[in-house]
Structure formats: structure tokens, C-alpha cells
Amino acid sequence: MADVYYLVSDLHIGGDEQLQECEFKDEFIEFLRGLESTDEDAELIVLGDAFGLWEFTEVRGLEKFDLLVDHHPELFEQFRATGEVVDITFIPGNHDAELAGYADYVDRLAEYNVELERELYLVRDVGGRRIWIEHGMQRDANNRLPEFGNPHANPLGYFVNRHITSKAGQLSGRGKYNWLKDMQSLTPLEEIPYWILSNYYYREMSPFLRYAALPFLLLFNFSLVYLVGVVLESTVLGTNFFTSFEWLRGLGFAGDLLEFVIVVNLVITGLLTVIAVPLFFFFRDAKKTLERFGLLVPDEAVTEQDASYLDAAREVFEDHPEAVAFVYGHTHRPSLKHVDGRLVVNTGTWLKRFTRTPALLGLLPPVYYPSFQLNYFRVSADPESGAGVLFEYETVEKTAPKELTLLQRLLIRTPKTQQTIPARTVVGSSAESESERTRSSAPNTD
Known about the structure:
Elements: E1 4-8, H1 25-36, E2 42-47, H2 63-71, H3 73-83, E3 87-91, H4 98-101, H5 104-110, E4 115-116, E5 121-126, E6 129-134, H6 156-171, H7 192-204, H8 207-218, H9 220-237, H10 241-244, H11 246-249, H12 253-292, H13 299-319, E7 323-328, E8 335-339, E9 342-346, E10 353-357, E11 367-371, E12 374-381, E13 389-396, H14 406-411, E14 424-427, H15 431-440
Parallel strand pairs: 1-2, 2-3, 3-4, 6-7, 7-9
Antiparallel strand pairs: 1-12, 5-6, 8-9, 10-11, 12-13, 13-14
Helix pairs in contact: 1-3, 9-12
Region (Disordered): 421-446
Domain Calcineurin-like phosphoesterase: 7-154
Protein name: Phosphoesterase
């Protein structure tokens, strides 16, 4: 056992065509180099989904590993160099479940000083206490492996991924901005239709159509207010400010153009009102069907998914009283939570992240703001108390990619990022020390 552990997950390196691109490769290589100079008895644990083996559809078995090495030689050579100084351990996730299905992966990874533990979970002792480490796919009904170690026994998520995410990697290069490959970064899956609509409008649509529709979409909300004014004048007020358009005609050509836009929007609003009721029932039924097949995840299901990990942690803590922390990945949402005096930790992802950001004006598609939250947890015995386990949350700086169009940048406010995970959290120390440290920590939620 080491004295210090570094925990990361969900790198998702590899896949068909455009999915081979690894946007954080330089940062991860630098992170590995940094481990070589720590002068610690350390172990790096990648707790699942290091590779996107599900995303390879044109080759099978160990050929996927050969492609990984061919596409990312610098990364594997860095594994080899870092592994000579610190221990590196991988466990399978769902996207690289084949690591448990083919024994040859143990030897292939060992060539690069990476030890593959073909297990669903690991336990590590730290400062006389124990931490439980797993990927977390077994807590997810759509991605639970029906027979761990059998590469031919796959959950529903495998088939969705193979036919949607992998296809996105194959087709992404045909787009104007090579955006389709980022589908793997979207969580939950229900965001996919809105994300595709957004990218179609802002990137793929003919510029003529986009900018021809823009004034109607920008002024749609204004037109709704105007419609309310027309209705009130016709039924209650008895004025003609809205119905006469006289104030618009005083603006000359600009007023005529604005009047045209408003009238068109009023007609569209009227038509939408007529068909709104049947459309509501149609889309509600279609949504339920997609949810039944697991292709959409309702908001309440996301909350339930998070709750399932808290329940799993409580079961582990009950069966293993010596465990003070339950660590998992899989959901791509980094977090640290206190549960009954112990910790439940999610290690997040190194993939690009998207924040759904509504347009400031009109009836325009939302903009999915891209960013990175490259992070890891450093776990060691608490040097102050001498009895607890110290979790240190570290982030690796990476500037948000400049890939939004000018129109997208003009229509939104840049979303603010808020650090909600404390830089230092101690668990398992004396009750007095634990209470003091918890009070001094920042709120630790998702």
C-alpha cells in the first residue's frame, strides 16, 4: 500500500475517427510528469473509463488497444515513464469493460507500467482507515454490466453508445465546425435533441436562413407582449395604441420593417396557439416513449441516479465499518458530500463539459457553453490530526475553448463557475476535530 493516492476517472480516450482526438492530452501528460517529482510513495488510480473502447466499432479485441497506442504514443510513453516512479492502477468502467474481458490487456498495459486490476472495486488503507473505490456503472440500470468480465454481455448503454456516440465520431468531420464528436460530453442524454437543434441553428443552417429568421426570433417575446396589448385594447381598454401601429409608422422604414415582423409573429403565434394542445399531448407521449427506451433521462431520474450512489455508499459503510469514504466516477459530475460522518466523492471527468445557457432575447435555441473542469483528488493521512484521512481537491487549469460563433457570444452571458468542493476535507478523525473542520469548509454539493 502507498502513502498517497491520486484519483481520476472518465478520461474516455479513443473511439472511431474524430473521437480519437484528446483535447486534454497535454494537460494529462503534464499531470503525469508532475507525479514523477512528488518524492512520495504514491499510487495513481484511474477508476474506470480510461479508454473509450465501446466507441470503437470497426475493430475488435486487442486491435482497439493497438489503435490507442498508435494515436497517442506520447501519452503511453508518459505512462511508461511515470509508472517507473509511482504505481499506476486501472480498473474497468463500462466504456472500457473489455479490460476485464480479455486477459491479454493485463500484459499489454504492463508494458507501459500500468497495472490492470480486473475488479469491480478496490479498497485502499490510508492512515489506519479504508477508502472504497469503484467506477459506479453497477449503480446505473442502463449501464450495469450483466456479467462482469464477459465482453459479449453488454448493457443497454453499450448499444446506444455504439449506434449514436460512435456514429457521431464518424460523421463529425463532415460538419462545418466538427462539433458532433462532443456528443459524448453531454449529460444527461435528454440534452442531446436540444444540443443538436442548437448546433444546427448556430453552425449548420444556411447563413441566409439563419439571419433571415433572426429578427423574427429575437422579437418573438416582444410580439407576445404586443399581442396581449392588442387583446386588452379590443376587449377592455378601448384605446388604439397597439392596434393602429401609428407609433411604428413614425419610425419610417425601420418602423415598417418592425411592423412586418410583429404582424408575422402574431400570425405565427395564433397558429401555434391553435395547434398547441394536440402538440402538447403528442410530444408528451413521444417523450415518455423515448424515456421508456432509455434514450432520454428525465430530470427526476438524474436526481434518483445521484441518490442511488448515496444509498450504495450507505450499504458499503454498513457492511464495512472501517471504510470512511466511498469514491466513484461514471456520472461526470464531480462532488464531495458528507453522509453519516463519512465522505461520498465523485471524481468527475476530463472530457469537455457543457453548460446549457439560454439566449438573452427572443425565442432562440440555447447555447451550450463549453468548458473544462480537469480535476483529481489527492488522498493521504491527515498530517495535523494524525488519525484522519485528508481529501485534497485539485484542478488543472485549461482555458475554455474559443469555439462559439460571434452570434452565440452576443446572445448569452458567460456562465459563472463556482467552486463548490472544498480544497481540503478531513474525515475519520476524532469527533471534535471532524466537527471543527466541517464547519470551516465551504458548502460541498454538486
